[in-house]
Design a protein that fits this description.
The protein is mainly beta. The chain has one helix at residues 108-114, and strands spanning 2-9, 14-23, 26-37, 40-50, 56-63, 70-75, 81-83, 97-100, 121-130, 135-150, 153-160, 166-171, 179-180, 184-186. It has a nine-stranded antiparallel beta sheet, with no helix packed on it. A five-stranded mixed beta sheet has the order 8-9-10-11-12, with helices on one face.
């Protein structure tokens, strides 16, 4: 599979251009997001590498422009994380997924990895990366399958366990979000 997808925020200005390649080696995502948050413009690039089962191997986020910030994290199959220097990051132990605040793509990771059946739910622990601050913390989330993936797509309920935020996410047959209510719309 080789997909190109564009999303835009429902409020404010911005766009995301994402390329997803899935092959026998795994899943590779390369994306650029430009937008604004609290009247501050940002431009970032992120890369996500997963195995064939959508388990995170590596995530990198960096700013594009004159001032550069970057973040590099790697995960092993036991949910242990290391930073770009290879040092362990104990506060992320047990996280199975990553959630980057400025993209709906990261919802695809647990949707594809969990393979939930109708009305089945799973609670996960994620590495939450807040952009443009590059703040890294953990977050508990729950996904519930409302309509499982098929040739027409599917529907999932996302819940932030800590904040109580809930959204119903329609996805295409590849598990990519079509519309994220009040946050993102897919352009193409």
């Amino acid at each position: 599979m080789n997909r190109n997808v564009f999303w835009t925020p429902t409020t404010g200005v911005g766009t995301e251009s994402l390329t997803l390649v899935e092959d026998s080696a795994g899943v590779d995502v390369d994306s650029v997001v430009v937008g604004s948050f609290d009247n501050e413009a940002f431009r970032i690039r992120y890369e996500v590498e997963c195995d064939r089962s959508y388990r995170i191997r590596r995530v990198e986020v960096s700013t594009l422009g004159l001032e550069t910030k970057s973040l590099s994290l790697r995960a092993d199959e036991e949910g242990r994380w290391t930073d770009g220097r290879g040092e362990t990051v104990p506060k992320l132990d047990g996280c199975t997924d990553v959630d980057i605040s400025v993209t709906p793509f990261t919802n695809t990771l647990p949707i594809r990895r969990l393979e939930l059946t109708r009305n089945e739910s799973a609670e996960i622990k994620t590495v939450y990366i807040s952009v443009p601050e590059f703040r890294v913390e953990t977050a508990s989330q729950r996904y519930t399958c409302l309509d499982p993936l098929d040739e027409n797509g599917g529907r999932y309920r996302y819940e932030s366990v800590s904040s109580g935020f809930t959204a119903e996410l329609p996805v295409d047959p590849d598990g990519l979000v079509i519309d994220y209510p009040d946050l993102f719309d897919r352009l193409w």
